[in-house]
Specification:
Chain lengths: ~325, ~1100
């Protein structure tokens, strides 16, 4: 079995760019199903911690209780610990009431406006019982020094908000608030081949209009040779604009663009709950766990029939 | 709160004050304490900062008086109606009708019928009956005149020279008709004015109340004064007007002029709330006076009776001369009734009146101003109804959109269906004239008329009053000012005079009211009856246009025009075209902007000029049923039901009206990223797929605020005389979780179905009783407010609940282009298609089939524009008709290459809107056409097509499944028929009706049918006596309880002893059979038996069952 045809491949990852909240990497030698599985897991199945239960003691603000609870839920909390935490529904230490350290974190918020100025209640006013799980800090890109919180509600004089909130572990599948990914996307890497002979038949002006037909800057003219060169193939959005333009100019086949079936360029943006790089790693980990769950253990014989060839294939590795 | 000063005449005038009660006050009116309040004060009064007033609050409901269309006042209208000829023998279907309005806004219609013999009859209504007078009698009775004078006056508009000339209205038949009219009077042997008056007086004395003792001529005088041409107070004016009307009538007969269209806005005005209340109040006061007089009279009669008999009675004390006694009698008449009847009018919209007040309808004068959203609210104030009497008409003529209404009524904003075309809305810059001028001062109409008159005489009008005889068209034109023939102008001069008047109208020194209507009906060949009709009256429609015949250096050239004059004016619309007038009729006026023809709501549709017109109509309706940010003072309101959108947004693509009307104060939707593609088929047939994750992040979330008022005083008065207060039971602690110690729910508490939420204590029986929450969904207590003066034991409470209404499958959404859809799936982010470049997932997927047949191009434009706008970071202006206007102003830029459109968008003209929008996208590296390459969220593969995607402003409509779903398996049944009950509230089912039965039969699904109609309905096993065939005479006989045998273990339970059934009629249990049948069958048998009809059943086994 090992010697014969095998679907097994060894995908390669090459990281291009890595920031706290953004990662860009290439994934090669695999197919769309794997790439998409990775994307889906990153969005929907990597666990984070988010506020799930709110007990409101006093709320005299203009927003109603559900609204505030909903807003609290959407505040990203630092969830580096989330992978090792338990879901409170299968936490043995507690009765699933979300009070224990393995599955939940308690928050308190007390705010009252005493001045005539409007008081902004922000995520910074949330006090956590666990220093590892706190609201994500955001800073103004123009003024990185100052930390801004996420505004929860604004209070005028005399209004008060007092509440207790419990954050729990969860995944994006259950509710979007647990999704650690702001955006995960991938695109196929394009290969662009310019038909140089045909290109030479164009005048400089024609070349320029042809280049401009693409909304993104994929091609440019070499200032020295005045040839059309591909400057950034990945800027190409598969919009076929240049091909249509070439056809309209009567120069079909001026350029050939193909998508490489087995290499993907991923862009991952995190909400800040976990680092983008960690998000990718966690996603791979979860994907592996999921595959493990599918891979059948030897003692489930009857499942063999159920899964048929797939089961055999999985067991064989 | 109006205390009416009452004048009581007895020698010297004694003024007595009677309190006629209190009056509802219109919000922000003179007596309202919110009058002139600035937004800050309004907020501190817990009102809307942009409160506009104009409505009444009665029983906590906001009620608006509906604007109603009425025939134009003081304008003689020629009409052709079949009903006229049915009036009496000899009548034709032609008449001239005038609705005359007194100074106090009450009106009397007068009709001048044409008779087949060439004469005419004047008809008017007194107390619900029409009286007809020969016109000659009226003419003679009005003025001391001779037959010759009348003859000359009538025939002056005819001269042989002018016949067949343009504008001639008279024919030679006029003379003969005049003769007939005069002959008629002579036949009645009435020759002098006095004779005519006495003739009239004799006939009308019985119907004229209070004049029984007066002489005939006095009666006739008051008939003429109170019922004929009541807008005029001079008999000479009345005479002249009658002559004018006769001429118009004869011209209608001779077909030298056409009848006026009573359905066209040209001949219409509007009933204002103030006027309605005024005339209603006037009638009620008159009623009261009449009653007071009657009771006084009764009292006097009684006294005289007593005196005659000579017996003593306590009534003797009454003395007519003593004021106190009279007052006592008057007080017997309930004075407060007057205010309460006005209040009732506003509360119910129903008039209770004998005379009818010259109005066509008795009900529907007020409506509730629903605050579903701001647009719906504001539309109530802009709506103009044609009148309830037209709603029942089979013909559609009244509903038609006529060109006369251009600029005054919005062609787009009318509902479809039953009230289509009857309920119109005023355009955004249409106004109604009133008693107040633009500065808010009360107008002096007498003075205004006087100045106009002096201006007219100054420019060469021959006044009509000194001499009665004048020539007629085409030589001279009559000038009518508010229904009074004031004189005549030579037709050559009229145009100049009109121009002069218009110039005076707009001039700053305000010699003439700026809303004077100069209705110049020019001479024509068989067109409308010519003349110069001037109107200064209130309740007319007016709208501003630019007068371009006035040199532009005079900055004021905005003129207010009315629908009557508009028809005969040349108004250019700045849309590039000339409206077909070419050079023959140079435009004298110009529209300010083409959007002026649309209503406020219709103005909010972006690029509505790119949409198929019915779509704009649908949008106008749907905008009014959108769940939006309905009120900023929501915390202080106790509306019965209030829809509220949690996180609304301001649209990226907006028309200039959004800023103009401050719509951003009350936003009504969300800028959703909309992808147009057929994805899995769940978006078929106007269904749409929502992104579940977007919803979880708060898109289109909302709630319903519902207030329940609990009035214990009402409850206790209705039943027994128990004293109830709110109190919780201290014994039963089970409900302490939901009810606070004061017997009312905790604020913020969630209440499930059938949980108690308030509790009362009966002081008489000293019992507490909890009340359970009805309804199927959990609600949150938002607010509890106590009402009433009794602070110790409040007996009235308002409890406001909050129903969460987050989007679910089955909820209705719509864009601003009449594209509505129902959510069919809520899909998580990961299953939605995504863009490879940006990673964007759509919030909403709609099907491409929504576009080809509906042609809502503006929606595509909106998508592209909003995408460009959000990429560039600005709002995009989408005011309709701006492109042609712009092009008109600065004649087009150099042409750029035109590109082929692939997406079925508008053909790309050079410098077109699409091109502009496309460039915006291209600048930011997006596709020119607004399409993007998307990848399947499920497979990760590229979708075969490029997908049109972009932000579109979506509204959430108030129709939600949670309020509508109806399910039932088993449940309550009807007591009589034992069938399932109906009604969603009561947990009933949906009727499986006759047509459903038909379809089941057609499918041959007999067993299913049997299941639905019998087994799941009123299945019943009846005992039938085969001997007599009765099902009613059978009774089961309870057998004596048999001694229970000791239970056998392991064996079957003892079989139930067979029921012993016996037939009463046959006295035997022989031939008893059990038959399954619907229970109603048994009921039918019982009902028939009650009618002495016996129903027998014949059972057989022949069917082999």
């Amino acid at each position: 079995m090992d010697g014969g045809m095998s679907y097994q491949r060894f995908p390669k990852v090459k990281i291009r760019e890595m920031k706290d909240d953004m990662v860009k990497f290439e994934l090669r030698e695999t197919d769309a199903s794997v790439a998409n599985a990775l994307r889906r897991v990153m969005i929907a199945e990597v666990p984070t911690v988010a506020i799930d239960l709110v007990e409101i003691e006093v709320n005299s603000s203009v927003l109603n209780d559900e609204f505030i609870a909903h807003r609290l839920g959407l505040i990203p909390l630092t969830s580096d610990r989330a992978m090792s935490m338990r879901f409170s529904r299968d936490c043995d230490a507690c009765d699933g009431d979300g009070q224990c350290e393995f599955c939940s974190v308690e928050f308190h918020l007390r705010a009252k406006c005493l001045t005539d100025q409007t008081l902004d209640v922000t995520s910074k006013d949330l006090y956590s019982s666990d220093h590892t799980v706190v609201p994500v800090e955001f800073s103004d890109p123009n003024d990185p020094g100052e930390q801004r919180g996420i505004i929860i509600v604004k209070l005028r004089r005399g209004q008060e908000l007092r509440l207790r909130a419990i954050a729990r572990k969860g995944i994006g599948k259950d509710h979007a608030k647990w999704s650690p990914a702001a955006t995960v996307t991938f695109m196929y890497e394009p290969t662009i081949r310019i038909n140089e002979d045909l290109m030479e038949t164009l005048s400089l002006e024609e070349k320029r209009t042809w280049i401009e037909s693409s909304p993104t800057k994929v091609f440019d003219i070499d200032p020295v040779t005045q040839q059309v060169v591909v400057v950034e193939p990945e800027a190409y959005t598969y919009d076929d604009e240049v091909i249509k333009k070439a056809d309209a100019m009567g120069k079909s086949g001026l350029v050939e663009i193909e998508a490489k079936e087995d290499s993907f360029i991923f862009t991952v943006e995190s909400t800040g709950a976990i680092k983008a790089s960690q998000l990718v790693l966690n996603a791979i980990e979860i994907l592996k766990q999921k595959l493990d769950a599918v891979r059948l253990s030897d003692d489930t014989v009857e499942a063999d029939d159920q899964f048929g060839e797939l089961g055999a294939h999985l067991r064989g590795g | 709160m109006a205390e009416v000063c009452f004048q009581y005449d007895d020698g010297p005038v004694i003024r007595e004050r009677f309190n006629f009660g209190q009056f509802p006050i219109m919000l922000k009116s003179k007596y309202c304490h919110l009058r002139g309040a600035d937004p800050q004060k309004l907020v501190s009064c817990r009102e809307e900062p942009s409160e506009m007033g104009g409505y009444f609050i009665l029983n906590g409901l906001e009620r608006v008086v509906r604007l109603l269309i009425l025939p134009k006042r003081n304008y003689p209208m020629s009409m052709v109606r079949n009903s006229f000829s049915d009036r009496r023998e000899g009548y034709t279907d032609k008449a001239v009708v005038i609705r005359c309005e007194r100074k106090n806004q009450s009106s009397v219609s007068v009709k001048l019928y044409y008779l087949r013999n060439g004469s005419a009859r004047l008809g008017f209504w007194i107390q619900g009956r029409e009286y007809l007078l020969p016109v000659g009698v009226v003419l003679k009775a009005l003025v001391d005149t001779t037959d010759h004078e009348i003859y000359v006056s009538l025939t002056c508009c005819y001269s042989e020279r002018d016949e067949m000339e343009k504008g001639a209205v008279g024919t030679q038949l006029m003379g003969e008709r005049a003769k007939i009219i005069l002959d008629e009077v002579r036949d009645l042997s009435l020759f002098t004015r006095l004779q005519c008056l006495e003739h009239i007086g004799e006939h009308f004395q019985p119907v004229m109340e209070g004049l029984e003792t007066k002489s005939y001529s006095d009666v006739a005088d008051s008939v003429l004064e109170d019922y004929i041409f009541v807008h005029l107070d001079n008999n000479y004016d009345k005479f002249n007007l009658l002559i004018f009307m006769l001429q118009k009538l004869f011209s209608l007969i001779d077909q030298t002029s056409v009848p006026d269209n009573s359905d066209s806005l040209q001949n219409q005005e509007v009933l204002l709330p103030g006027h309605l209340i005024t005339i209603y109040l006037k009638e009620k006061l008159e009623d009261w006076l009449r009653k007071a007089k009657k009771s006084l009279q009764d009292e006097i009669n009684k006294k005289s009776n007593i005196n005659n008999k000579g017996s003593n009675n306590k009534n003797k004390s009454f003395d007519f001369c003593s004021l106190a006694d009279v007052k006592k009698i008057l007080d017997k008449n309930p004075v407060k009734q007057i205010s309460s009847s006005v209040e009732n009018l506003l509360k119910t919209g129903r008039l209770i009146t004998q005379t009818g007040l010259d109005l066509q309808q008795r009900a529907g004068f007020t409506v509730q101003a629903e605050r579903l959203n701001f647009l719906r609210f504001i539309s109530h104030f802009r709506a103009v109804h044609r009148g309830a009497s037209f709603a029942g008409l089979r013909t559609t003529t009244v509903r038609k959109l006529l060109p006369e209404s251009w600029g005054f009524l919005c062609p787009v904003h009318t509902p479809d269906g039953e009230p289509c075309g009857l309920l119109n809305h005023m355009t955004s810059n249409c106004r109604i004239t009133s008693f107040f001028d633009s500065q808010g001062n009360i107008r002096d109409f007498k003075k205004i008329r006087k100045t106009i008159l002096s201006v007219l005489i100054a420019v060469g009008m021959t006044p009509s009053l000194p001499n009665l005889v004048q020539a007629g068209p085409p030589e001279v034109l009559s000038v009518l000012l508010d229904g009074r023939v004031v004189g005549s102008l030579p037709s050559s001069m009229v145009e100049k005079v009109v121009g002069h008047l218009r110039r005076l109208k707009v001039s700053a020194n305000a010699m003439i009211a700026n809303d004077l209507e100069v209705g110049y009906v020019p001479l024509s060949l068989g067109g409308a009856y010519p003349g110069l009709y001037l109107f200064t009256s209130p309740a007319r429609f007016v709208r501003p246009v630019r007068n371009i015949s006035i040199p532009s250096e005079e900055s004021q050239n905005i003129e207010l025009i009315g629908p009557f004059e508009q028809v005969f004016m040349e108004i250019r619309c700045p849309d590039g075209g000339d409206g077909g007038r070419r050079n023959a009729f140079p435009a004298t006026h110009e529209e300010i902007h083409p959007t002026g023809m649309l209503s406020v709501v219709a103005n909010l549709t972006p690029w509505s000029d790119h949409n198929q017109s019915p779509r704009n109509m649908y949008q106008c309706q749907m905008a009014k049923q959108t769940m939006a940010f309905s009120s900023q003072a929501i915390n202080f309101r106790a509306d019965q039901k209030l829809y509220h959108l949690q996180t609304p947004q301001s649209p990226i693509v907006r028309t200039s009206s959004y800023t103009k009307y401050g719509i951003d104060e009350y936003p009504s939707g969300t800028n959703a990223i909309v992808a147009v593609l057929a994805y899995t088929g769940y978006d078929m047939e106007d269904a749409m797929i929502l992104n579940k994750s977007s919803v979880e992040r708060g898109m289109c979330r909302g709630q319903i605020y519902q207030t329940e008022t609990i009035d214990l005083t009402e409850q206790s008065s209705r039943s027994d005389h128990s004293q109830k207060i709110f109190r919780r039971s201290n014994v039963n602690k089970s409900m302490h979780s939901t009810i606070d110690s004061d017997g009312l729910p905790y604020v913020g508490q969630t209440i499930q179905q059938n949980q108690p939420y308030y509790c009362t204590y009966d002081e008489v029986t000293s019992t507490t009783r909890p009340y359970n929450r009805k309804g199927s969904e959990p609600v949150v207590v938002d607010y509890v407010a106590l009402d009433g003066k009794n602070k110790e034991h409040p007996r009235k409470a308002n409890i406001r609940f909050r129903h969460p209404r987050n989007p679910v499958i089955g909820d209705k959404f719509s864009s601003r282009h009449g594209q509505k859809g129902v959510c069919s799936q809520l899909w998580p982010d990961i299953d939605m298609p995504f863009s490879g470049v940006t990673g964007m997932r759509p919030d909403l997927i709609i099907n491409p089939h929504a576009f080809p047949s509906r042609m809502t191009i503006a929606m595509l434009l909106e998508s592209v524009a909003a995408k460009g706008g959000s990429l560039h970071g600005y709002f995009v202006d989408a005011t309709p008709f701006t492109i042609p206007v712009k092009k008109d102003n600065a004649d087009s830029k150099p042409k750029t290459s035109s590109l082929e459109e692939t997406d079925g968008k508008t053909e790309s003209k050079p410098n077109s809107l699409v091109e502009e929008l496309g460039e915006m996208l291209k600048e930011r590296g997006f596709n020119y056409h607004g399409v993007e390459v998307l990848y399947s969220g499920v497979y990760g593969t590229e979708l075969t097509c490029e997908i049109f995607i972009g932000p579109v402003y979506y509204q959430r409509l108030r129709h939600m499944v949670s309020d509508k779903y109806q399910v039932r398996s088993t449940g309550t049944i009807d007591q009589v028929t034992r069938q399932p009950i109906k009604g969603r509230k009561r947990g009933g089912g949906i009727r499986f009706g006759e047509m459903e039965r038909d379809s089941m039969l057609a499918h041959g699904a007999a067993y299913l049918l049997h299941d639905r109609l019998h087994t799941c309905s009123d299945y019943h096993i009846a005992d039938v006596c085969t001997l007599c065939g009765s099902i009613l005479a059978t009774t089961s006989i309870q057998q004596q309880k048999q001694i229970q045998k000791p239970k056998k273990f392991g064996g079957l339970p003892p079989a139930r002893p067979p029921k012993k059934v016996i037939c009463h009629a046959c006295q035997s249990s022989k031939g008893m059979e059990t038959v399954a049948m619907p229970y109603v069958f048994r009921y039918l048998a019982a009902e028939l038996a009650a009618m002495n009809i016996k129903m027998t059943l014949q059972l057989s086994n022949a069917a082999g069952a």
